[in-house]
Amino acid sequence: MRTMMIWSLCLIISLSNRILVIASSSRHLCRPYQKDALLEFKNEFHYNVMAGKTESWRNNTDCCSWKGISCDPKTGNVVELDLQDSFLNGPLRSNSSLFRLQHLHTLDLGLNNLTGILPASISNLKYLRNLTLYSCNLFGKIPSSLGNLSYLTDLDLSVNDFNGELPGSVGYLNRLTELRLVSANLSGKFPLVLLNLSELTWIDLRSNKFEGMLPSNMSSLSKLIYFEISGNSFSGSVPLSLFMIPTLVDLDLGRNDFTGPLEIGDISSPSKLRVLYLGENNFNGPVPRSLSKLVSLVSLDLSFWNTRRGKVDFTIFLHLKSLRD
Ligand SMILES: *[C@@H]1O[C@H](CO)[C@@H](O)[C@H](O)[C@H]1NC(C)=O
Ligand SMILES: *[C@@H]1O[C@H](CO)[C@@H](O)[C@H](O)[C@H]1NC(C)=O
Ligand SMILES: *[C@@H]1O[C@H](CO)[C@@H](O)[C@H](O)[C@H]1NC(C)=O
Ligand SMILES: *[C@@H]1O[C@H](CO)[C@@H](O)[C@H](O)[C@H]1NC(C)=O
Ligand SMILES: *[C@@H]1O[C@H](CO)[C@@H](O)[C@H](O)[C@H]1NC(C)=O
Ligand SMILES: *[C@@H]1O[C@H](CO)[C@@H](O)[C@H](O)[C@H]1NC(C)=O
Ligand SMILES: *[C@@H]1O[C@H](CO)[C@@H](O)[C@H](O)[C@H]1NC(C)=O
Ligand SMILES: *[C@@H]1O[C@H](CO)[C@@H](O)[C@H](O)[C@H]1NC(C)=O
């Protein structure tokens, strides 16, 4: 009798759990005001080819089931909008309905034709963690309001035609781990505010118009794995502190105006560096012996190094057992 009671109690508990689960999943119909914002956002653009994700967006269906949308399973709020390569044509207006989707944490509008500026009101989406506006035909200044997106971990503004410098307010994004600004027509000195962002693992500034020297104190970027700045006009010597970052795997400094003999310093802990591109700069002097300590190297580019007619000591490379290129 006793066990029977316990069993039926268990049954009731497990059944009611299941009912709760069913009830909560049926609550995931999207909120009407968020659905309206999405439909209005869709209509802000014109479409040359109607084959994008927004084609499945209809007023009489649950927006959480639409292509490119994810809702939070607990609250039902729209938290993710992924409209990469969705044939959006037209500018992102500062009063866009997009900015009413206050709960978004991921926004990907990459590979669309948003010919226009990136409006300052992007910072209304204050819970954004991932922002991807890769290849969107954006121009004008990058708005300093970006610095207000304090939850941002991933920012990709690559392949756009911006004007001027990276705003200093980026220095407030202290959760940022990945920063991609490839081919974004950015100029100015290396943004010193990046030294403030100690969570950064990835900095990609390739193919811009940056110039001047790298700062000497780069060791605050203590989690950096990828540092890629090729195709700019950086000059001066490469700071020793860069080689001291123990996490570094990929260092691409090619096609700049770096000069002088290269100092790598005393590397005590085993280096993780796998890729080292130094080609097409103005390095000169002997190839440094300490290169032989970079025992994980797989790919090394020293092209256009001016050895000043000195002989290269090829025994340096004998220690590099993983080297392929
Ligand atoms: C969606 O439908 C509702 C109810 O029929 C209507 O009030 C709302 O304006 C519609 N939204 C859009 C964007 O058409
Ligand atoms: C948004 O701004 C544009 C001009 O930039 C204007 O034509 C449009 O009516 C505005 N939309 C709303 C909903 O205020
Ligand atoms: C992108 O938009 C601009 C301005 O609206 C237009 O002139 C251009 O043709 C568009 N490009 C493509 C590839 O659709
Ligand atoms: C956001 O960025 C992180 C870090 O790169 C990545 O792991 C994650 O998949 C991204 N989230 C989305 C939804 O794209
Ligand atoms: C950023 O946020 C601060 C404080 O909330 C506000 O005063 C400022 O106007 C915002 N800046 C921009 C550019 O949106
Ligand atoms: C690139 O930036 C420069 C200023 O540094 C500006 O004069 C030029 O118009 C920009 N190019 C494009 C294609 O926007
Ligand atoms: C650096 O980050 C801290 C918070 O982590 C912030 O208080 C400070 O203003 C930032 N400095 C710059 C120059 O951005
Ligand atoms: C790093 O060096 C730059 C000059 O190269 C200096 O302006 C900056 O204050 C230094 N930052 C830290 C954190 O030491």
From TrEMBL:
<feature type="signal peptide">
    <location>
        <begin position="1"/>
        <end position="23"/>
    </location>
</feature>
<keyword id="KW-0325">Glycoprotein</keyword>
<protein>
    <recommendedName>
        <fullName>Leucine-rich repeat-containing N-terminal plant-type domain-containing protein</fullName>
    </recommendedName>
</protein>
<keyword id="KW-0675">Receptor</keyword>
<feature type="domain" description="Leucine-rich repeat-containing N-terminal plant-type">
    <location>
        <begin position="33"/>
        <end position="72"/>
    </location>
</feature>
<dbReference type="InterPro" id="IPR055414">
    <property type="entry name" value="LRR_R13L4/SHOC2-like"/>
</dbReference>
<dbReference type="InterPro" id="IPR032675">
    <property type="entry name" value="LRR_dom_sf"/>
</dbReference>
<dbReference type="InterPro" id="IPR013210">
    <property type="entry name" value="LRR_N_plant-typ"/>
</dbReference>
<keyword id="KW-0812">Transmembrane</keyword>
<keyword id="KW-0677">Repeat</keyword>
<keyword id="KW-0732">Signal</keyword>
<keyword id="KW-0472">Membrane</keyword>
<dbReference type="InterPro" id="IPR046956">
    <property type="entry name" value="RLP23-like"/>
</dbReference>
<dbReference type="Pfam" id="PF08263">
    <property type="entry name" value="LRRNT_2"/>
</dbReference>
<feature type="domain" description="Disease resistance R13L4/SHOC-2-like LRR">
    <location>
        <begin position="96"/>
        <end position="320"/>
    </location>
</feature>
<keyword id="KW-0433">Leucine-rich repeat</keyword>
<dbReference type="Pfam" id="PF23598">
    <property type="entry name" value="LRR_14"/>
</dbReference>
<keyword id="KW-1133">Transmembrane helix</keyword>
